[in-house]
Amino acid sequence: MKKLTLVAIAALLFALCTMPLIAQTKATVKVLGVWGGQELDVFNEAVKPFTERTGIKVDFEGSRDIDAILTARIQGGNSPDIALLTGPGKMIELAQAKKLVDLTQVLDMKAYAKNYNAGWKDLGSVDGKLYGLFLKAAVKGLIWYNPKTLKAMGIAELPKTWDDLLALSRKIAASGTAPWSLGIESGGASGWAGTDWLEDIFLRMYGPQLYQDWYNGKVSWTSPEMKKVWQEWGKIVADPAMAYGGKEYINSTNFGAAGNPLFANPPKAVFHHQASFITGFFVDQNPGVKAGADFDFFGFPAIDAQYAKAVEGAGDICVVLKNNAQTKAFMEYMASAEFQSYWAAGTGALATNRNVSLTFYPDPLIKRAADILNKAEIVVFDASDMMKPEMNAAFWTAIVSYVDNPANLDGILAGLEKVRKDVYKVK
Fold first, then answer.
1. pLDDT tens, 132-167?
2. Tell me: the pLDDT tens digits for 63-111?
3. Which among 182, 197, 279, 354 is placed 20 to 30 Å from 398, CA to CA?
4. Phi, psi torsion values for 264, nearest 5 degrees
């Protein structure tokens, strides 16, 4: 946590210079979110200066099954003050049900307009009203590797197309080393890391319009186009020679630990697919590894050339269910560059507040990821996070089932199609 200590000092100095004094109180803000492990450590560190200045305590409850728990809490009249969601899907549902507070009643909107790009406001809005504050973002679809491993294998050129990547993967597999390491375990959210693969393939095969139709429930899961996407991923995940440890390892390994085989001696795998936030896990779980020297990335390769510069992004979004003085104070703090500097330094997440200095990012790779997000010609949000919660949950489960038994793909897709028809009222 040394880097967090440095950030805490810098953030405190920043706060003293820029933040107004807030009267001390003994109030508590109740927050429900998905964070645990490293992310929760960073959150707790970021909360300390807020509590010290205001006296407001932050009571955080974490669960990977946040959608179900939040729904139950609302129905039982015991909702938290604030909920931290993994994407806009649940936010849209709650806003349409009139369960959320319009953030124009909570935030200083002049400061918000100054500190946030319009795109974040659009993604956080429902029917023209702002309900969601994006706290941190990530670029998805990055392919991570150990440069030393590629050099030792004599691989001098990175693949530029999906076909090139598959050909290189087969060559590596023939040498006796697994080309890929995957892990999709994540408690109640197990499978989400696999949905990212399908989203990246779908986007680069069919483009942003059909991608949007997909998460809006307008594309059949049993269509030839959809089956083709799963089959392409199956060329890696369904081939025991292509994925380290096979299906048992994939389904039992937490997403945060899935990149570790890249750093074994000798290496147990060569490539790992994950978003920009994964660097924090690399460093924490493999002491001594350094960005650039021990891990680097390239973007997800092109499938259809016209969508070669497409990028998938994701982010955690904050919504308010109870509007009170302590909630307002904490929301203003979370919207600040001070709070988000902790995420940049502690997890490698990309700040949504554009006033967070690049000096807070832990390494040049994260700065490069931010540059990719800023310069992308096509940017879409994580499709599964945009789906209705029931569809999203079924998608996660389907990923686990497919890894376990790829031969049952038709049955898995038929099950997803049934959920689509039920959830989106398709005849």
1. 999 988 899 999 999 999 999 999 999 999 999 999
2. 878 888 999 999 999 999 999 998 888 999 999 999 999 999 999 999 9
3. 279
4. -70, 160
